[in-house]
Amino acid sequence: MKNVIFILLDSLNRHFLPVYGNTWVKAPNIERLARRSVVFDNHYIGSMPCMPARHDIWTGRLEFLWRPWGPVEPGEMTLTKHLKGRAVTQLVTDHYHFFESGGEMYHVDFDGWEFIRGHEGDPWVTRPNKIEMTHNGTEANVRYMRNMSRMREEREFTSPRTFQAAADWIEENHDQHERFYLCIDEFDPHEPFHSSEPYNSMYDPEWDEPIFFWPTYGPNRYSEKDLKHLRAQYAGKLTMADAWLGKLLDKLDRHDLWKDTLVILSTDHGHFLGEHQWVGKGVRPQNQPIAHIPLIAACPGVKPGRCGALTTTVDISATILDTFGVDPGRIDGRSFLPLLRGETESIRDYALYGWFGAYMQITDGTHTYLRTPDSPDNSPLYVYRNAWNTAPWWRIPVPDDRIETGRFMPNEDRVVGRILLTDAEKNNISAHRRLLYQPTQLYNVIQDPGQSHDLTGDRELVARYESLLARALREVSCPPEVFTRLGIDAALARA
């Protein structure tokens, strides 16, 4: 294979895709891609939420064990650094978090990058634009209402512009480089669930109230009518993005790029739309609507079909590097090229995932174990990093006399700093501030995908998954205090 195209659709719910069994949402171009592809049925998230997931993909290492949302740090090896001199790299994105405090350095090592303006809270348009909305009032809503003034026609929305820009790049570059890596990071169908007609009213044509496409994260406070409309708006935005994805696929058809290009489509995480009485993301158990995500890969010379092997977000990085013949050294990801080629039936026996400072979750594809922190003060909790900037809502402390430096991260040959967070500082970090101390839980997600029947009463089964969790944490060389914070037996931590 010569090339890789990686397509990330943010907050893409697996259960809204026809290829995963949905019967009412239209996504014909994702289905079109799937007909050429291996569809993975057991793919899971790594680090939550948006930027930590991207850090997983860029570096092949789990981010949430060490720090919350943050930039690529000095000395970190990324996909694009590894590909220097091996392939031309291009990023096309409307994901504005790349270009604000806390999201720096993800784009700088690409040979080219294009930023499509206007999504969510992107500070783009300044002229006021008053629109009657329900459940409104946040700063991001005000910013987006201003941005909406430049989104009158379908082609002016962000996902159409992003996929059109990517299609244009293919048209201009498909035969200009020996090899290329094209990363398309599309923020749709992330909220706000705002789209043009016909998508805006496609799935809930009877809605007759003011605009409502931006839910508040947290425990569900909406009526069934509201939730139905939110799901319809989400589906409409997905269908619009899918329509413009088709223009990219048209270019692959026209230039016969399928014969030498690996095309991967996935997401960073799902999104709660009323499931488990929750809306949005949040620091709570990362149940299946968030954790169990789509992965579709079209590989030259590989017969399309389904794959039940367990995979996770960090495996995307390993797979892309494997395609270009790069050995990244010790990372947490594992290439799934051998799965695509039928050379093996499995590349891993667990997927570890979570949100910094919160629950620790692990699955073997059959059961999912959601381990809560052991104590109400969630201690000890360290932040490890060198770049101490982050998104405004993650208020990590500025380094002071407490800071320690050392080679704390065994998988990386660099010195980092760490700070033990005080109770007040933990409360300033959104991961701790909104933490809901639900008990440790265990589910058979094959027999009980809705996770309604907790199996923690089975002590033997719990012991098995506690042991698996301890092994996984050891294998990814997590910070040693994590075992203490989770209350994992010292013998398991040392085994």
Itemize the secondary structure elements and their pairings.
Layout: E1 3-9, H1 28-34, E2 38-44, E3 47-48, H2 50-59, H3 79-82, E4 88-93, E5 112-115, H4 139-148, H5 158-173, E6 180-186, E7 218-219, H6 224-254, E8 261-266, E9 272-273, E10 278-280, H7 288-291, E11 292-298, E12 305-312, H8 314-323, H9 337-340, E13 351-355, E14 360-363, E15 367-371, E16 382-385, E17 404-406, E18 416-420, H10 423-428, H11 430-433, E19 441-444, H12 459-475, H13 481-486, H14 490-494
Parallel strand pairs: 1-6, 1-8, 2-12, 3-13, 4-5, 4-6
Antiparallel strand pairs: 2-11, 7-10, 8-11, 9-10, 13-14, 14-15, 15-19, 16-18, 17-18
Helix pairs in contact: 1-6, 2-8, 5-6
